[in-house]
Structures are given as structure tokens and as C-alpha cells.
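Support request, please re-run this one:
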Amino acid sequence: MSMNIPQRQHGSIFELEFPQSVAVYESYVKAQQAVDFLSDKEFEVKNLCIVGTDLKSVERVLGRRTWKTVLTQAVLSGISTGLLVGLVLLLFFAPQTGPAVLIGALLFGIVISLIFQSIAYAVSGGRRDFTSMQQTVATKYEILSEHKVAQQARDLLATMPGVRAAAFE
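Re-run finished. Output below.
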């Protein structure tokens, strides 16, 4: 019994055939400059990918959470949600009622948001009493190339101004 496994005709735009490392940079800007240099030298840059590697998670603490900040955030969230719902209702379902629907949806959004966010904050018991933003960032950026042109890319990058000086840093 033979299984017929379908072959992928076209790979993802992000995939290279037999990729090889060409260079590694400490910042995305430097990797981008290297690709731009290769492009200026008329290298077929469609054979390249810039890949962020050595990922790390960065969390930026923005401030302390208190009842004041929780309630303020709840009101602002309720306003935006209420306005959105009110505008949809006004435009599609009740255009003849005018601003009454908009004001009602706005008040309803604020009340619901206040209730849910207050309960969530009270239940948290003081754990994670701060607000923050989290992001995953790469610490290195590697230029990969199709295997058939990788050495050509390396040779061209060796002629890039500042490459020799960087080797002695």
C-alpha cells in the first residue's frame, strides 16, 4: 500500500531553499544596511532573508495600579466600547432614535466596564499591582541566503565600508 503525500509546489515566501548564513549583526538597522549595500551592488536580494535570533522578552513597567488608575482605565475603556456599539446601533438599527441610543450605549459601556474591571482588580488581591507592556525582541539579526549565492553575498559584504574596522572592535 502506497501513501500519496502531496508535495508542496510553492513554499512560503519566508522560506529559502537550503539557506546558509551570510552574516550576523547586532541590530536590525545594520542588517538592513547590509542588504541595502548588496542591492546597490546589484545582488539578487530576493534570495535573502533577515532573521531575528536570540529572542528575549522585555517588559516595561509603566506604573502602579491603584483603585484610581483601575477606575480611570475602566471609564476610558467603557467610553470607547460604548461609542462603538452606540454608533453601530445608530447607523444600522435605530437611526430614527438619534442621540438617545448613542448616550444609552455609552453609559451602558461605562457601567459594564466599571463593574468587570473593579471585580477583576478586587479578586487579584494585590498581585501584579502594576501596569506594563511586554515585547519580544531579537538580540541578533542574521542574513540568510539561498545556498547557490551565499558565497557571492559574503564576498560582496566583505567589501562593504567599515567591515574591516568592525572586525578589530
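The mean pLDDT is 87. The chain is about 45% helix and 25% strand.
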